[in-house]
Amino acid sequence: MARVYMETMIQRCVTFSQIKQLQSHFLTAGHFQSSFLRSRLLDRCAVSPFGDLSFAVKIFRRIPKPFTNDWNAIIRGFAASSQPSLAFSWYRSMLRQSSSSSALCRVDALTCSFTLKACARALCSLATVQIHGQISSRGFLADALLCTTLLDAYSKNGDLVSAQKLFDEMSVRDVASWNALISGLVSGNRANEALDLYKRMEVEGIRRNEVTFVAALGACSHLGAIKEGEKIYSYFKNANLDHNVIVNNAAIDMYSKCGFVDKAFEVFDQITGKKSVVTWNTMIMGFAVHGEAHRAIEIFEELEKNGIKPDDVSYLAALTACRHAGLVDYGTSVFNNMARNGVEPNMKHYGCVVDLLGRAGKLREAYDIICSMSMILDPILWQSLLGASEIHKNVEMAEIASRKVMEMGVNNDGDFVLLSNVYAAQGRWKDVGRVRDDMETKQVKKIPGLSYIEAKGTIHKFYNSDKIHEQWREIYEKIDEIRFKIREDGYVAQTGLVLHDIGEEEKENALCYHSEKLAVAYGLMMIDSAEEESPVRVIKNLRICGDCHVVFKHISKIYNREIIVRDRVRFHRFKDGSCSCKDYW
DNA sequence: CTAGGGTTAG
């Protein structure tokens, strides 16, 4: 009777001092004879938000021979703490102790589960493999929950091969196991396979839940697969009448990443239940990357009016909006307000502000901000300043920034090209040559340009100048036709963008088969303009090239087609000869 | 002997 009462007392603890009181009461009343109550209290103390892990450890240290559940409570606490890797040290101590003690202390499925949680959070793949070994030797492989935790730990550690293998070998699989693998594939940049798996669930008649929809919508966001995305979302709407806010958030993101920010807003607007801060942030970010800064800011201000506290991502989204529209004053004030509102700027916020100032020509201010930072710098800051220096043709700043980038051991070809462009703009050909020699001697990393387009329900991939596509001849012919037509419209190739020391005609050729041009040409061929007003939508892994930007403006006018390009950082929507970015990018 | 473990959004 007393035990049940004590258990209820533990559950009712909502402050740390209450836990402490109970703990001393337990000690004096001798309740710690009961290992059950003891571990309940430990667990409460170690993991609840008002608990105190170090206090839990203190209690633990006074137990002469801790049982399984005492260990589990501590491991669980560390797994959820800011130092998840300590959970693994505790796990090892437990293994040592359990080998020399009674059956009351042995690693069980929960021990493994909590430790794996820590592996997933601390990104510890070696430990994950070790726990896997324990799970199989102890005969826990039939435990579906545990296997799903293991699967998740593998995929969070980037080991999708092991995750997939485990999934295939699992004797019992349920929705969560499928979901874990689908999510893993999405975050491992294998969204195509994630969608295939989702479709397999559909075919095999496996019940899907809201987590499945979120993961599958995430796959569509990555791929820009709007048709599949809409199918999934409408299926969800028909299946669940009570609207799940997380799925709606995923849908907002999906529409926005597929290029349809107005549809994203429709979803946002039609949410009848409670919006979460993520809902607002997703919408702000959507408008921001589409260059609709004023609508982004409107939502950002409305968020505060709705009594929601903006978090770090809210500020990041607002700053992103300013950055892409060149709203220096508003952006600066947002940045300065952050800390006052209890949100410390992180690397991404600094990255945004440096880009905002730099692009707007305030190179010195951008430089001063970087120098004022007390955290370890990310090379992206200097790369951003280098990019701004290139836009504004500032040799001194470009040299400073590129030296910093190189010092940090980054050797991307794009950074060399930027520096070279600044020299070229000043006619400093000797320096241009030196940069090019540098590129040859250093091992410069070149990330190949890659563009995707969805046509007739499948995704087509293009690399620069590739001839892999079965219709490559037709595509190249289409490009010739486009070049001919847009020249009549006044197009001149932006050959200044090509670094190599070659003739003008060769330079033009180097530009004209860029991956995004191949994709757009294919889109013009394949996507029927009569069929709904479907725009030609392309996704590129890098930033869009300046020449392609000019070409697409011409195409949008001459072919009377809307083109939407999702670049690494933002959207460009070409319509009637101009781009939504207003050439500010 | 009694509870506790898995998958989800920006």
From TrEMBL:
Repeat positions for PPR: 143-173, 174-208, 276-310, 311-345
GO biological process entries: RNA modification
Domain DYW: 490-585
Keyword Repeat: yes
GO molecular function: RNA binding; zinc ion binding
Domain of life: Eukaryota
Keywords of the record: Repeat
Family: Belongs to the PPR family. PCMP-H subfamily.
Protein name: DYW domain-containing protein
Source organism (scientific name): Capsella rubella
